[in-house]
Amino acid sequence: MTMSIKPLNEQLSYDLKESLRSKDKVRLDTIRAILTALKTERSSPGQNGEITPIQEISVLQRLKKQRAESLDIFKKQDRNDLANIEKEQLEVICSYLPPMLEGDKLEKLLKNFIIELGANNQNDFGRLMAHSTKSLAGKAEGKTIAQTLKKLLNH
User: Most buried one in 8, 62, 102, 152, CB count within 10 A?
Assistant: First the structure.
């Protein structure tokens, strides 16, 4: 299931019903976790019950990161039963995320930011990182941005 044009909430509601019908427990539990996280975000102070698509992506990325960390821990503990569940949940969460910028496309954008901000060495990393993560919110992962910026600033 890839993300469609439908708003995330509509897609999740539809997929929740489909998961109930097909008795896909892992998918069902994961969608419920996503819906709960989104509801929590909407009810946080200052949100007035609404969040932007960028905030939705941020919630999904946070859930993705949590599942990835749990997956690593379970693999290290040789708990393949739990690792497999985390892996399946991670795949479900990723199916709702838009494709992230990587490689040449990301590098090209970051080079433009470097020129735009007049950055030329590692001392400018913090300023560049702040600008890049804000500009590319929901389009690229922070870890990938940081790695690419370090590579570009070291050349």
Answer: 8
Q: Which residue has the higher pLDDT, 3 or 135?
A: 135
Q: Please, are residues 51 and 42 in contact by the beta-carbon 8 Å criterion?
A: yes
- Helices vs strands, H then E, count in the chain: 7, 0
Identify whether 44 is part of a domain. Answer: yes
Q: What is the domain-level CATH number for residue 88?
A: 1.10.1510.10
Find the distance separating the first CA and the last CA of the chain, reported in whole Å: 40
Which pLDDT score, from 0 to 100, does residue 14 have?
94
CATH number of the domain enclosing 144: 1.10.10.410
CA 12 to each of CA 40, 59, 100, 154: distance values in angstroms, whole numbers, following the listed order: 16, 14, 20, 43
